[in-house]
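Exercise: predict the fold of this chain.
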Amino acid sequence: MNVHLLLAVTLALQSPASPAPPAASARGTAAVRAGLDTLYGGAFAAAARHFARLALADTADPAPVVFEAAAYIWWAEARDSGGFERRRVDSLLAHAIARAHRLGPAADFWLATAHGYRARERDLHGETWAAARDGKAMRDAYRRVLRADPACVDCYLGLGVYHYGLARAPTVARFMARLVGLGSGNADSAFAYLRHASAAGDLAAVEAAWVLAAALERDAARAQDPDSRAALAAESRAAVASLAARYPANPVFDRFLARRPETAR
């Protein structure tokens, strides 16, 4: 799993504890949940079509637009092709950000999520400073949500990714990050946030578990102590095995486990 995946705050989560756009309804929430289950189940094209229909039905709500972009991002990962539908994803995220801005503070959660996705995409394609700007916008918006609603567990996925990315960046990159106002990361806080989101999040749980697995695998590779390395790798594999058991048709999870025969289902 590449480091760019750790910038993928691939969540625009509609949680009872999270502020929802005024246009959201109980029916819309059920439709979003159904679409996410389709996405994580590996039917990426069907998920993209589902969210496109939701976006057309409610032209104010940024959530389905972000989720449509997410479907293409997961689809690209399944194809192992970072360039797959790149322009479409960029256009969708820009559209989602514009929708969120029009809604104002009520849509800060969606604004944060869209910026997080775009940070991932820009980092993947080598646009480092643009990714940093999106990352900062994501962090600031999630903090605003938490100030208004400290119970937003789903917010901690994005903040966990942010902390981890800064904590594990090279020394020069960390120095530059402080200069431009990104702050400094903390790996312990990052793992605490990610575990919290994966265990107690609403719709954040799946994405948080996947991103947590990526972070654990990365830390296992850099660990000097063999026991620590083995424990981190085992936790990473177990997290993905659990996701694969829940979504057996998702090729992204299958590919991860296929590289580790000892955890095959």
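Check your answer against the key: The first helix runs from residue 26 to 40.
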